[in-house]
Design goal:
- The structure is a single chain.
- The protein has nine helices and twelve strands.
- With 257 residues, it is of the alpha/beta class.
- It has a single domain, classed as Glycoside hydrolase/deacetylase (TIM Barrel).
- Strands 2, 5, 6, 7, 8 and 12 form a six-stranded parallel beta sheet that branches. A two-stranded antiparallel ribbon has the order 1-11.
- Strand 9, helix 8 and strand 10 form a beta-alpha-beta unit.
Length: 257
């Protein structure tokens, strides 16, 4: 009888944990949101106005979603024993546009939201639309920003494959993958092992070369949430547009329920 009582106590304890607010079953998917540029107006699909972005962050908070670091999601995908967080969402920004510093950074600082930036180093402190190395360093020092690779100068791999011989194309691709990784690691003193495919272009050969270069996960622009069954080198992301407002934006988050 004592043994039965002990088992019953253990079951009651487990049920109480499962029913508690901090415990949830592993969700089936997590949305990764992708931003490019912010600003006062939206002249193209890649620009979200700063007020709309702020409203999106407030909706995330109001609806009870939790922004987690991209690295935490990758860790969970790589180990089935690590649960995916309940109602999780991930924020990323590609290219290193200056408005990521001027408009996005103050908002994520105020709300304490982690963001991963995918950077192609050739533009930084060089192109007039891009951030500087000093601005990136300031963002990195906040503890909220992770900096990862978007290749060295954002090539179109489909175009380069047609233009170059197979051997030259392989060398070109490896240079793009390795040089970006090396520059960012040297600049910031931390491992760079995540990759955003330029234009979302990838194939099995590119996946293999990226893994050989030291990348553990890579990301496309396929507009759907991440699931455990996805290829680790082809994880999808939602490009967020200025039209993703209110319930339309919430529908992107709803993938993590």
């Amino acid at each position: 009888m004592q043994r039965v009582g002990a088992w019953l106590s253990a079951i009651v304890c487990l049920l109480s944990l499962i029913c508690s607010p901090g415990f949830a079953a592993d969700p089936s998917s997590v949305p990764i949101l992708l931003y490019h540029r912010l600003g006062p107006v939206s002249p193209d699909e890649m620009t979200v106005t700063t007020p709309v972005f702020e409203a999106q962050l407030e909706l995330i908070k109001e609806r009870g979603y939790k922004v987690i670091p991209l690295a935490a999601l990758v860790a969970a995908l790589g180990d089935s024993a690590v649960p995916l967080p309940e109602r999780a969402v991930v924020l990323t920004a590609d290219d290193g546009h200056r408005t990521v510093y001027s408009d996005m950074f103050p908002l994520i600082q105020r709300l304490k939201i982690p963001v991963t930036l995918f950077i192609y180093p050739s533009a930084i402190s060089n192109a007039d639309y891009a951030m500087t190395w000093a601005q990136l360093a300031e963002m990195k020092a906040s503890g909220l920003v992770d900096i990862q690779s978007h290749t060295f100068w954002h090539p179109n791999f489909n175009v380069e494959r047609k233009r170059l011989t197979p051997a030259a194309y392989e060398k070109f691709t490896q240079d793009q993958l390795l040089k970006s990784k090396a520059v960012l690691e040297q600049r910031f003193g931390e491992k760079v092992d995540l990759l955003a495919w330029p234009f979302g272009i990838r194939d099995d050969q590119l996946d293999q070369w990226a893994q050989a270069a030291g990348y553990v996960a890579a990301f496309t622009i396929e507009r759907r949430p991440v699931m455990r069954s996805d290829k680790i080198m082809a994880l999808p992301r939602f490009i967020v547009t200025n039209l993703d407002r209110g319930e339309r934006f919430v529908s992107l988050l709803g993938a993590s329920k």
